[in-house]
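From: lab user (bench 3)
To: helpdesk
Subject: output format question, protein + protoporphyrin IX containing FE

Hello, I'm new to running complex predictions and I'm not sure whether the block I got back is the full result or only part of it. Here's what I submitted:
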Amino acid sequence: MNKLAALHMRLGVIYAIIGMTLGNFMGASHDFTLMPVHAHINLVGFVSVMLYGLVYMAFRDQPVTRLMKAHAGLAHVSVLGMCASLSVMFLTGQAEPVVGIFSVLTLLSMVLFAVILFGLTKKA
Ligand code: HEM
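Helpdesk reply: Thanks, we reran it on our side. This is the complete output you should expect:
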């Protein structure tokens, strides 16, 4: 489990750096067009992903399952896809359907995590 925990925590802290960099640019330029992207990369990217890592670290004696790997893939593809498509939408007014698709995938990744967490805590 340690490797999966490390992957989530490493990617989580990278999302934090991207989100905070964007926050600094917004503050310096007084251009808040991408504020929703800043909020989502910090909260769905950094906070949620870091929590995935910390939860897996707490259950590090448990084996990594295929569901956990599928969740990791879906979680990172969907957070990156959602933030990228949100950026396009707020900059150009286009891509709303793509934002919708990635929003549903982001929700699905949290549902998968709920299934994983219920399984892990049942054994705890
Ligand atoms: C270097 C760190 C950060 C900087 C410089 C920064 C900067 C900013 C700025 C300039 C705004 C726009 C404020 C406004 O016009 O109302 C903002 C909004 C926001 N930030 Fe950050 N931020 C940082 C870190 C974070 C983190 C770590 C999170 C969450 C974990 C976060 C979540 C949010 C949210 C949710 C909003 C929207 C607030 C609203 O809608 O009123 N930020 N941030």
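A quick orientation on your result: The longest helix spans residues 2-29. Let us know if anything else is unclear.
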